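Researcher: Go.
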Amino acid sequence: MYTFLLVLIYIAFISLGLPDSVLGAAWPSMRHSLGVPEGYAGFVTMLIYTGTVISSMATGWLNQRLGAGKVVASSVALTAVALWGFSCSSDFMQLCLWALPYGLGGGCVDATLNNYVVLHYKPRHTSFLHCFWGVGTIISPLVMGAFLARGGAWTQGYQAIAIFQVALVAVLLLSLPLWRKANEDERADALHAEAASSSPAALLRLPGVKSALTAFFCYTAIESSVGLWATSYMIEAKGIELITATRLGMLFFLGIMLGRIISGFISERLGDVKLVRMGLWLAMFSFGGLLLPLGSDILSFASLVCLGIGCGPIFPCMIHYSPSIVGAARSQALIGMEVAAASAGSILMPAAFGLIVQHVDISLLPCYGLLFVLVLLLLVKNMMKYG
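Model: Structure:
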């Protein structure tokens, strides 16, 4: 049962990646039809991740009352409704109204499935789980690019992705009996974690914790900013035509998926510390490749893939390393705080770069990412010396 349920969890995690990358791929077309400046994408992303923060904080309460299976199924359904709402939006304010439920659904899926896999499966499955998130982030730009290439509208791309989500909801509803035993185990584990956890104030006094929280903030600042702005960067800064950039904007997410597949197979041999540092150095060189003024289109897209490969192992490895900082008894409390810090980075930093786009230039995206990579190298060094 646990093996089949794990496969189902992997498939369900695809639904988390589908909405995460489609906005960046569709935005160059969306902003023209909605008549808004390019930098407004940051405000939409901020609203989405605000919903994610709210729902992730409420996940424990929801799981106790509904069970993990119902929470995941209803959350994917909420995301499907929000995606359909995006496709029906005719002005920017409607888009903003749908952005909150868009994030509410995603936050519950993320928190529920991550928590279950960490509690019940081997560490490598954390990387593989996030790899399936990468599958979703690859599918949605391809779908959007296919509609735009045929002269269709971005609204049709959102409708197709919403239908994909509905199909996942149907599978999840049929699988609800499989979650009953899992729900019983989760409740027992939740009670144990609640008894052993520490308050946020107590955890913040422990060495390495503040560095860990800041590291999660900085990592998601990179991932979410590049994910949102990469397509626009390729068009505006590199002069790549719209359809090509929309189709290949998913290469960053493809790289993340590849990085997580690789790290899943070698994590036990190299360990979390080496994988995170290797990923950061590769990300640094990749941003350098994007900065080269004479680079060809192939070099730009290759840099985007390598950037994703470098980013791939960072988040799951830092999650897996959390018990080494505070001990197993306090790890659940710390992971909750780390997810909140990561969500804050996703809320604030893409929007902050949106202001840079409006008032300076989008060509600064690699410099923006490099800044966070350098900070992360210092934070990880401090954070992981306490493990």
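Model: The first helix runs from residue 2 to 34.
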